[in-house]
Backbone:
């Protein structure tokens, strides 16, 4: 994509200052931002030249005031706004014009005008319009037509000035140019908006966009214009990016804190490089700058459209996200010798799954270069796992700041005296480009020149960027009203994914025109993405919180207001996303519970991918309501208004959620009712029957009834394969659950076959970073771990952890599982300290995401306890083992294999502490549970037998120990090929026997 040089529309505003102060303020703060927005959408730069201040004392001393005004009028042609109020204005003297040696020489009429006593305003009107024959389609006059209010200051004028003012007014009416009268700043603003937009439409008509690509380019270029304005480039930074593009290096990561100018740099460099290298196609994409989603679909579509245009491909852009991901590598590989540079800004604004760039091809063609930007945080952490080169932006130097001050103000024909410029540049806070740019924007909008120095000190006295934005908010309140700004900012802050304009209109009762004007005036600080209004940077978010939401109660009220609003909205995905979040944060717990148990809403939005969010919502209720009883009551009410089959499907949906919550008992009550009804109604050929059978199989697995689970899951798998074929995602899911049950029974080879089949299907159909693919990858790692291939397992778990961090973020349960498994592998490899660190991370993450009563937390507690035990931290290890046992008893009851597993861990720990009698008691209970639930030949049963034998031995109960060892050796001899786990434990048992005293060894030998 080649950049076009944007055309610059400059509009000169001429009027007296003091009497029309409010009118000019209204234009600068309300109307011109809207015009600027329209122009930017067309690829135009709009600048108003408002010389209320900007000419320094040095300019005045050298007589540059008049010549500057006339030069600016020439630069602004054919646009000119003349506003005539109640004053005739400043009348220059001969000494004023003769201070400038060139003024009279260039403008011979100046001397005569001064001799006649013309004011500067009349000179500007004459020079721009009244005394010229040049066509000025963008010139308009506006004349004040009102009696001064009683409280309005009276401006003393001579009778002569009054006469001149009247003659000037008559000349304006006679000039045959557009002339309007106004009474209020608002009326003037509406007239100026209408006239300017009409002139712009005539002179710069909107381009007819014939393709989605043209629209995308325009929108991103419009944003680029806004960011690169007054940007001061650094030679070393530009050279760094230039060098990257000419190298064969992998993507370059540009990073810095929010507000350090990453977007401005990439906007400037993209144009800079394209202008100097027209043979290179540069595509610059600003995430979050236009109506794009938080995923990567819009980004992918843009890259494919640009590639298609570059290659003149006939291929259609794929419809689905997965197809676009697959097409990207193929299309980029077709790029010819011409170089393609992709510049992607603000990766941190993508959702975690997209920001990790797993969708990006691993190998890029030699002529395709990529530059990325992000802030520090999870996105940068995820990118760093790839080992790509980095470039960190540095703060502005003193010279950078001076240059930026001069450059920015000069674009609006303003300037500061050297002393004030250096005062700003010397302040350490202005090393932040965002701080400095915001300060300069505020000064540009400030209309009282006599108080400008005071205003500079006011802004520089702030503590930091967030503090500066609090003062910006004060100014915006003065312009638009305190209540309105307070309301807008707190609502945007409280929203989960941003506030839609329709939401804002409903909540504030503003007109759409009024809301549009406000949002455009704030567009440097707010961004609208996919119709959602959000803060453009974190500093404003922090400032809003500090200014309006400094305490818990004010934050709660902000969320509660949105919660009440969404309660009145009809059912939709938007409502389902915002409502439970707002109710929870707003302390509206009863309303949250009612929504969670609204069965139609629950069935629509509590999908398998979203179940973990619903678990989190229940955690917000903090045990105030009985989850099981709440759903049972809701299902009873649902039953009275629906058919038997509809009720059965609802029971199954809620039952599946109960399995995810770890409440197997409630799930069994629901699913045992649902399954027969669904089987009877739909028959063996229907997918709903297969789903129901599989769900019940998952429940049996959760209950530790592995043989029943295997039968059900095998049956469900066969039904899915018959319906969908073997290469199907639903079949892959069935393979996962069946593999888990096979693994739990020690049938490792069959489990591995099932899991590898599932992984293959998901990698092919979903890509490497999808949560389901990661789950399948973790299963393969578990299999390697189970067969003592610890190094291979660690490698798999490291890959899965990195992908989970990149794709899902730390707030997703899959990340917790991956980290926990990685810790297990590290522990097996004797990296104990690292294992303990990872286990602590996994446990904290698990508790946050799934709660303290979820079954997975039991495993995390056990694992951490085991690692601590191996590292010699026995007391702390015991604490975690006891927590795990208590949780298992509460969740599963005393006869569940998981409860027995916690007892095994605790018993082994007690044995190591020499508390053998306590250990024997705990291990005996565990052994009986394993025998009853898993059988005498199961690995867990054998391991517990060995542990109990060791405990008996250490407490002097040699006969009991020998009996258990004999039983173990008999089981091993019965058929070790059918029990691979027994083989691994055999070595452990021999070690225990060899470590026993001589009497024990002799006893075993004679046996």
Residues:
């Amino acid at each position: 994509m080649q950049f076009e040089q944007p055309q610059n529309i400059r509009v000169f505003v001429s009027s007296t200052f003091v009497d029309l102060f409010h009118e000019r303020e209204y234009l600068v703060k309300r109307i011109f931002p809207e015009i600027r927005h329209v122009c930017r959408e067309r690829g135009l730069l709009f600048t108003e030249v408002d010389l209320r201040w900007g000419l320094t004392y040095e300019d005045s001393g050298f007589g540059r005031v008049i010549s500057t005004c006339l030069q600016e009028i020439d630069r602004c042609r054919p646009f000119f706004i003349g506003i005539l109020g109640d004053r005739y204005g400043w009348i220059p003297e001969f000494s004023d014009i003769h201070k400038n040696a060139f003024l009279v020489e260039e403008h011979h009429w100046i001397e005569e005008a001064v001799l006649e006593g013309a004011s500067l305003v009349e000179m500007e009107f004459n020079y721009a319009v009244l005394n010229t024959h040049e066509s000025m389609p963008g010139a308009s006059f506006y004349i004040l037509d009102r009696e001064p209010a009683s409280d309005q200051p009276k401006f003393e004028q001579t009778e002569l000035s009054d006469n001149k003012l009247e003659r000037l007014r008559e000349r304006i009416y006679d000039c045959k140019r557009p002339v309007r009268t106004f009474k209020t700043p608002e009326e003037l603003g509406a007239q100026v908006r209408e006239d300017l937009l009409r002139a712009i439409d005539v002179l710069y008509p909107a381009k007819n966009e014939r393709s989605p690509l043209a629209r995308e380019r325009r929108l991103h270029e419009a944003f680029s214009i806004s960011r690169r304005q007054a940007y001061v480039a650094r030679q070393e930074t530009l050279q760094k990016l230039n060098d990257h593009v000419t190298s064969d290096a992998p993507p370059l990561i540009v990073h810095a804190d929010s507000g350090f100018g990453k977007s401005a740099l990439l906007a400037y460099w993209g144009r800079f490089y394209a202008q100097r290298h027209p043979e290179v196609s540069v595509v610059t994409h600003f995430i979050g700058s236009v109506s794009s989603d938080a995923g990567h679909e819009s980004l992918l579509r843009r890259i494919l459209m640009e590639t298609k245009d570059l290659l003149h491909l006939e291929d259609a852009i794929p419809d689905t996200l997965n197809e676009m991901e697959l097409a990207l590598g193929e299309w980029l590989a077709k790029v010819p010798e011409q170089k393609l540079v992709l510049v992607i800004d603000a990766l941190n604004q993508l959702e975690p799954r997209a920001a990790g760039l797993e969708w990006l091809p691993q190998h890029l063609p030699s002529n395709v270069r990529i530059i990325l930007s992000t802030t520090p945080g999870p996105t940068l952490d995820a990118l760093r796992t790839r080992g790509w080169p980095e470039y960190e932006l540095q703060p502005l130097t003193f010279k950078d700041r001076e240059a930026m001050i001069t450059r920015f103000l000069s674009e609006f024909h303003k300037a500061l005296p050297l002393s004030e410029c250096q005062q700003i540049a010397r302040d350490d806070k202005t090393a932040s480009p965002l701080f400095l740019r915001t300060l300069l924007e505020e000064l540009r909008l400030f209309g009282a020149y006599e108080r400008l120095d005071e205003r500079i000190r006011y802004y520089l006295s702030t503590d930091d960027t967030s503090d500066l934005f609090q003062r910006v908010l004060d100014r915006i309140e003065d312009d638009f009203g305190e209540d309105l700004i307070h309301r807008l900012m707190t609502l945007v802050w409280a929203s989960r994914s941003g506030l839609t304009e329709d939401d804002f209109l409903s909540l504030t009762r503003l007109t759409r025109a009024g809301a549009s004007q406000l949002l455009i005036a704030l567009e440097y600080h707010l961004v609208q993405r996919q119709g959602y209004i959000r803060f453009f940077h974190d500093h404003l978010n922090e400032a809003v919180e500090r200014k309006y939401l400094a305490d818990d109660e004010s934050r709660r009220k902000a969320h509660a207001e949105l919660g009440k609003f969404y309660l009145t909205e009809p059912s939709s995905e938007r409502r389902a996303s915002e409502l439970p979040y707002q109710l929870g944060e707003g302390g509206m717990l009863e309303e949250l519970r009612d929504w969670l148990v609204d069965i139609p809403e629950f069935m629509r939005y509590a999908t398998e991918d979203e179940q973990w969010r619903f678990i989190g919502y229940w955690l917000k209720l903090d045990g105030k309501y009985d989850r099981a009883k709440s759903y049972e009551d809701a299902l009873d009410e649902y039953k009275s208004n629906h058919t038997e089959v509809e009720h059965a499907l609802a029971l199954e949906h809620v039952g599946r959620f109960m399995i995810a919550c770890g409440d197997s008992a409630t799930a069994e009550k629901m699913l045992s009712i649902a399954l027969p009804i669904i089987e009877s109604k739909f028959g063996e050929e229907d997918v709903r029957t297969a789903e129901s059978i599989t769900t019940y199989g998952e429940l049996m697995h959760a209950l530790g009834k592995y043989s029943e689970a295997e039968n059900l899951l095998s049956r469900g798998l066969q039904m899915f394969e018959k319906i969908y074929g073997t290469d199907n995602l639903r079949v892959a899911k069935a393979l996962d659950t069946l593999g888990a049950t096979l693994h739990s029974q020690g049938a490792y080879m069959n489990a591995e076959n099932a899991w590898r089949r599932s992984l293959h299907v998901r990698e092919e159909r979903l890509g490497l970073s999808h949560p389901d693919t990661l789950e399948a990858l973790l299963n393969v790692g578990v299999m390697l771990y189970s067969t003592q291939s610890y190094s291979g397992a660690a490698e798999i778990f490291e890959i899965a952890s990195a992908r989970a961090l990149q794709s899902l973020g730390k707030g997703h349960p899959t990340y917790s599982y991956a980290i926990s498994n990685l810790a297990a592998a590290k522990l097996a490899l004797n990296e104990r300290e690292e294992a303990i660190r990872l286990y602590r991370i996994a446990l904290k993450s698990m508790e946050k995401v799934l709660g303290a009563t979820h079954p997975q937390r039991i495993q995390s507690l056990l694992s951490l306890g085991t690692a601590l035990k191996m590292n010699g931290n026995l007391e702390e290890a015991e604490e975690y083992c006891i927590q795990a046992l208590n949780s298992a008893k509460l969740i599963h009851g005393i006869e569940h294999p998981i409860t027995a597993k916690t007892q095994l861990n605790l018993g082994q720990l007690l044995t190591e502490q020499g508390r053998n009698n306590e250990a024997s008691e705990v291990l005996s209970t565990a052994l009986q549970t394993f025998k009853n639930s898993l059988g005498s030949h199961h690995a867990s049963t054998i391991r517990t037998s060995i542990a109990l034998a060791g405990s008996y031995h250490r407490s002097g109960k040699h006969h009991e120990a020998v009996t258990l060892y004999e039983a173990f050796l008999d089981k091993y001899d019965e058929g070790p090929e059918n029990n691979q786990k027994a083989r691994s434990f055999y070595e452990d048992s021999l070690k225990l026997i060899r470590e026993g005293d001589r009497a024990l060894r002799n006893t075993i030998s004679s046996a």
Confidence is low (pLDDT under 50) at residues 1-6, 973-987, 989-994, 996-1007. The chain is about 65% helix and 5% strand. Residues 424 and 701 are 68 Å apart (CA to CA). The radius of gyration is 37 Å.
